[in-house]
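Input.
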Amino acid sequence: MRKHYYIIRFIALIVCCVCSSCEDFFDPENNDSVRESDFPSSREDLNAGALGIYSVLSQEVHKFLLWGSARADLVTAGAEGKDPYITEFVNNKVTDLNPYTNYAGLYKAIARCNRQIENIGEVAKIDFSLDDNAINAYYGEAYYLRALCYFYLVRTFKEFPIITEDLTEDVARVTESGDTIHLKTIELTAEELRDIAMQPANEQQAWQQVYSDTKKAMGMLRMDFKWNGSSLSNEEKFGRANLSAAYALACDVAMWMGEYLKASAYADLIIKNSTYDVTSPGTWGNTFTSTYAAGHVVNLLGYNFDKSHETNRLQEFTSNVATDGGEYLLKPVKDIVDSLFIESGDIRPNYTFKRINKQDLIWKYIGQDGETAMRDAYKSVASWHIYRSADIYLLKGMAENRQGNPGGALYFLNLLRSNRGLSQYDKAEIDMSVENLEDLLLAERARELAFEGKRWYDLLLVSKKIGRKDVLPSFVSKKYPKAERAAMYNWLSDENNWYLPVDPQRWE
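Output.
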């Protein structure tokens, strides 16, 4: 049983990892965000506070890439030995000293969500321009983002705190003599911090926290709310949560909780909305090469740069051009990726990975087209996709499959394939068993969502929650040299090795 600490009124001083020199358009300093010492008193303050949450999350995308892709079968180290901590991820031997296990950025975002939730009601008493729709939208956005943070945590770590109240950097403590003193949390000892914490909660409580926040978001968010009473700019539009984002998260969470009927129903809100179709074969690449994503991206974290030598860390991790800010830390596992894209007509490979100058590249975050043009040096505005419509179509197929509806599963699988230039599967010619359809859906998700931080969690879902324990070790062990595969298979057959170790005190 993994331990989760339910913490009521404290915060360890959370230090977010510096995102190179990256500043995104959600940066609170660039958007007049509410400072810690300011009391929000207007709708504009709440909006700035919300943008500050996205600001923190946008600085964590390189970790999401490591947590959800580098450990899985499609990714390995680019420049061998350049960063030993990256090597730990691709070798699935991550230590608790690895800086990329630092979840402090997520807790900074959670802290801002909690503060936003507690401030909304107070601002509503002062700013009478906030009607019920606006109040609900701000509440729903904060609940959605908090749920998203905990969703990452519960699938990634063995131990993590659950914090659901507003946070303060200062902690008041009463000494034995009765004096009240105020200390920075960072000054507290480990024993003092543990005294503040309550008893550990079990894993189910952690999932209920995610599900509870998600359901609140679903009840409060609207499909197209006009923040601050005006239409959103292109920069903000696809970065802000709406009702579709909440339903996408609910679909995903329901799959993890084994509630396949609900997962399927939640997916329908996106599938039945024409805004979120699965796109035609000719426009799929625009998702990654355009400045702002197309409408079929449900929710994302985006970037905008106005200073020199700024870079999105996705560019840093995947580019092999040093003058672009590239460190070439990660690359595709060529044999495995090639084996996924063996069918002719698929429009996705050219925008997904490349081999240029004898080096294999993850192309989604550095490519300007489907050929060889790369994004400007230190100017990658490639966004991080939290949910795309195709993601939800395939989750719908997996949910239908697990409900005993193979025809429905095949329908959604074929719907995506035909929109990617591939032929449809004929049910008379393929094995229609639950496990084979699941494997076909997993393979299609690998093709569609390669290098988007989904693959490890897909394999984990099927292995841990659906119960096919062999899936994760079987797939992941294939990326290692033949002489190492048996040992890696055995290592990954132990569920304890499916989660990142972390020393919470290092990040408190």
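The longest strand covers residues 170-174.
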